[in-house]
Amino acid sequence: MGTQTISIDFPNDILLALNESENDLKKRIKLALAIQLYKLEKLTIGKASQLSGLTRLEFEKELSINKISISNLNKEDVLSDIEKLK
Question: Which segments of the protein form a coiled coil according to its record (predicted)?
Answer without folding.
Answer: none
